[in-house]
Specification:
Elements: E1 10-14, H1 18-38, E2 41-45, E3 65-71, E4 77-82, E5 92-97, H2 106-115, H3 117-130, E6 138-142, E7 150-155, H4 165-189, E8 193-196, H5 208-223, E9 235-240, H6 243-257, H7 261-267, E10 287-289, E11 292-298, E12 308-313, H8 323-332, H9 334-342, E13 345-346, E14 349-353, E15 361-366, H10 375-392, E16 397-400, H11 412-427, E17 434-440, H12 445-458, H13 490-493, E18 506-510, H14 514-528, E19 534-538, H15 547-555, E20 561-568, E21 571-578, H16 581-614, E22 621-623, H17 633-641, E23 645-653, H18 655-667, E24 674-680, H19 685-691, E25 709-712, H20 715-721, E26 729-737, E27 742-743, E28 765-768, E29 771-774, E30 780-789
């Protein structure tokens, strides 16, 4: 990642927790939406996206690196590689596919991009002819421009976002079945080599260690002693492009293919010392998940010496409510309460310094009651966000209470299970060592036992109780020895370099406009860090969807995600809902991309028509107003009287719109044009400058006067007419409007009403209480756009 500091027109958004999954699956969609809607260039840094050029990953083409090699009793070689499968030389490459063979994210997108346009088309044709590929099955299709002879599309099991042990166990047989399906194709086609990735890990949520065990075990079983095959490949290559997965594959091979060698290597490993953790020479009690170590201990949370201490708060932010918060406040002092009232949320957290506590920062997590919808997922995300935020800050230790076991109503067992799954999930993508301490109040013996029981059931074969060999001053009294040795590699433990967080995962936005950056950042945060079980998308262009587009949108629905259309007064849109936050976000982004495509087609058609009518270039140009532009002075005064701080004023000029407006004005000489106002969403500004005002851009809260273009006579009326504004700023257009003759409006009116019964003529507009509605965009001309900050009361 580039080390240069961001310039004034750059915003960096760290990717934490579930947002990493969303970006991996939707990188190209995000790039398109941010560029088109907000004119922001996008770089995605610190992630191996496998999604082709243009996303600014900042990583050069990966040179294949061969790791360990093993030979099975049948003579088949098994080797582990760090490489990019899209540029890897093997007779067959395995793609981790979905059942519809839609290659829209991750490895599948990278292979499709490198394979050329025919790659996806062949997959589509196969599904049309044969139907979806079942979980556990695999099919061999063409490789397009890839270096291999064939691509084997393998559909592994998809697990829930935080799978329990039972779900993982059930999915293991499906994953082993899909590996057998792949190897049967290799045998049938007599392929000399086959490259297999960690199918179902990553976005399919299969825990990485168990995934590696299942894949290596299936290969060993298929080619083990006592099996007969008419054809055997020379080599099975286990290929992945990230260090954690490569190391887990090496660990699984060493453990399963050469019994005994791994445990000796792991036992000799050491771990770098961290604040609040054990020294390198001791054997501290621990559960090891890759770079993440979890310790269970008794103690008082406010007395811990850690980089980070986690607290829980309610919506009122009152630290005196709740036993843990109250004890933290007493130790930290009243300055913490003052700081928390004024601090903003960072994702789901409020972060303050430690004040009187012996820590660098305190993460105050706001969790929901167990009986609230999606409460378990919210608790999981809170723990996950704490861990990712600590890792992104290069902290090495963090202490948690038993979050949710008090007034929130969760049982001790539920909390232990959720917190452990969050630690395991983070460990599979984290690149730095992190000690995670679960601190139980000394008198809560039953709670401690409940946590201990969950730890044992979490990985019973790996669980051991090992008291420290010597007293370590860094390990407090009450800590238990919980050692998950199979999750470790000696190479992971030898020094800190292997797990150093060199590149923080983030999205970098770049634009020449600070306003665009603010809007893009706010929209992106709402999509990547949405904690609710639904995403609501307001977009009146949904009314332009034809039968074909509606069918395509229906195809966007995935399992456990529903898309419902709604019409609320003058506003149209969809609600994307479900149980999995990642799936909801991915589906919502794809839906927005489809709507953006429809809007783009509409704009291009309108621009072509305007060009033909005007014989002028159709392009809105924006520039600073001159001293002779007096039209906006009164509007600026009105804005300031409402507490709106003016940020920018731009003059809008469009030769095509000006020509057509002048022609229309010549036909309506009865009344001169008037300067009226329209409050619009941020993403509509560019379109209005190009093709003028349209009903889809700024529908009012209540279309009481008809289905036309609404304008307000003053700022007060505008703020009442358009209250549903979610943008960070206000965007107010000043327009010339040809009212002509006016009449009274009514709901549903699509043309100006007649002046009387039986009249063949029509009024040019309708009016009521400072609101004007016209029914033709030719009667409007955008003149200025004013950008201002919202008042405090909005």
């Amino acid at each position: 990642m580039a080390s240069s500091a961001p310039s004034s027109d750059t915003r960096d958004i760290p990717l934490l927790g579930s947002s990493v999954h969303i970006v991996r699956r939707s990188a190209s969609v995000l790039q398109t939406l941010l560029l088109t809607r907000f004119q922001c260039e996008v770089q995605i840094l610190g992630l191996d996206l496998d999604s082709g050029p243009g996303l600014g990953s900042g990583k050069a083409r990966m040179v294949p690196e061969k790791g360990s090699e093993f030979v099975l009793s049948s003579g088949v070689k098994v080797s582990v590689w760090k490489a990019d499968l899209a540029n890897f030389s093997a007779a067959a490459v395995v793609n981790a596919a979905n059942s519809k063979l839609e290659h829209y994210g991750g490895l599948a997108a990278a292979l499709a991009s490198a394979g050329g346009p025919g790659f996806q088309k062949e997959s589509d044709y196969y599904v049309q002819k044969n139907g979806n590929v079942r979980t556990g099955d695999a099919v061999a299709l063409g490789a397009g421009k890839l270096q291999c002879k064939t691509v084997i599309h393998a559909v592994g099991p998809r697990l829930s976002y935080s799978p329990n042990a039972h779900e993982v166990s059930a999915a293991k047989s499906q994953l082993q079945r899909v590996i057998r399906s792949v190897l049967e194709i290799v045998e049938k086609k007599q392929l000399e080599t086959v490259a297999i990735p960690a199918i179902s890990s990553g976005i399919f949520n299969f825990p990485l260690a168990e995934c590696a065990d299942a894949i290596v075990g299936a290969v060993k079983s298929f080619y083990g002693s006592g099996t007969s095959h008419r054809f055997k490949p020379k080599e099975v290559l286990l290929v992945n492009n990230d260090d954690p997965t490569v190391k887990e594959m090496e660990r699984a091979c060493a453990q399963l293919l050469t019994p005994g060698s791994y445990s000796q290597a792991a036992a000799s490993g050491t771990r770098p010392q961290t604040r609040g953790g054990a020294g390198a020479g001791a054997r501290p009690p621990q559960i090891q998940f890759g770079p993440v170590r979890v310790l269970l201990r008794k103690g008082r949370l406010e007395e811990q010496k850690m980089d980070v201490i986690v607290n829980t708060i309610g919506q009122d932010r009152n630290l005196r409510v709740g036993q843990v918060s109250n004890m933290i406040l007493k130790k930290a002092g009243d300055k913490m309460q003052s700081a928390i009232y004024s601090a903003p949320f960072s994702g789901s957290l409020i972060i303050t310094n430690g004040f009187g506590l012996d820590c660098k920062e305190v993460y105050h997590a706001c969790c929901t009651n167990k009986h609230s919808s999606g409460s378990e997922q919210a608790l999981f995300r809170s723990v996950q966000d704490c861990l990712w935020t600590a890792a992104a800050s290069n902290y090495s230790s963090i202490a948690f209470p038993a979050i949710g076991t008090g007034n929130l109503g969760f049982s001790d067992e539920e909390v232990a299970r959720i917190m452990l799954h969050a630690a395991l999930d983070v460990s599979q993508k984290c690149h730095c060592p992190l000690d995670v301490h679960f601190v139980i109040f000394p008198k809560d013996e039953q709670r401690f036992k409940a946590f201990e029981k969950e730890l044992k059931s979490f990985q019973p074969k790996a669980f051991q109780t090992e008291p420290p060999q010597s007293k370590d001053p860094h390990v407090p009294e009450g800590a238990q020895s919980l050692n998950f040795k199979p999750a470790l590699l000696a190479s992971q433990e030898q020094g800190s370099a292997a797990w150093k967080l060199e590149d923080k995962a983030l999205i970098r936005l770049q634009s020449s406009s600070e306003e665009n950056l603010s809007e893009a950042e706010a929209w992106l945060m709402s999509r990547l860090f949405n904690s609710s079980s639904a995403v609501c998308i307001y977009d009146n262009f949904i009314q332009h969807l034809g039968e074909k587009e509606l069918e395509e949108l229906c195809d966007l629905e995935v399992e456990d995600v529903q898309v419902e259309e709604f019409l609320e007064k003058g506003l149209s849109g969809v609600v994307v809902s479900g149980n999995d936050a990642v799936e909801i976000a991915v589906a919502a982004l794809r839906f927005e991309q489809k709507l953006l495509e429809v809007q783009g087609e509409f704009v291009e058609e309108e621009k072509e028509e305007l060009k033909n009518l005007s014989r002028r270039p159709v392009r809105g140009e924006r520039s600073p107003p001159s001293s002779s532009d007096h039209e906006v002075k009164d509007v600026v005064k009105q804005l300031r009287s409402h507490g709106l701080e003016l940020i920018k004023v731009e003059k809008v000029e469009n030769a095509a719109l000006q020509k057509l407006f002048d022609l229309q004005k010549a036909q309506m000489p009865s009344r001169p044009p008037q300067l009226l106002l329209q409050l619009v969403p941020a993403h509509a500004c560019h379109m209005i400058c190009d093709i003028s005002f349209r009903p889809q851009c700024a529908p009012p809260d209540e279309p009481a006067l008809g289905e036309g273009l609404y304008f307000a006579a003053d700022v007060t009326t505008a703020l009442k007419l358009w209250t549903k504004r979610s943008d960070q700023l206000f965007y107010l257009f000043v327009a010339e409007v040809l009212k002509g003759t006016s009449g009274g409006g009514r709901p549903g009116l699509v043309l100006g009403p007649g002046p009387g019964p039986g009249s063949w003529t029509r009024c040019d507009s309708v009016e009521r209480s400072g609101v004007t509605v016209v029914f033709s965009h030719i009667q409007t001309l955008p003149r200025f756009i004013l950008v201002c900050k919202k008042p405090d009361w909005v």
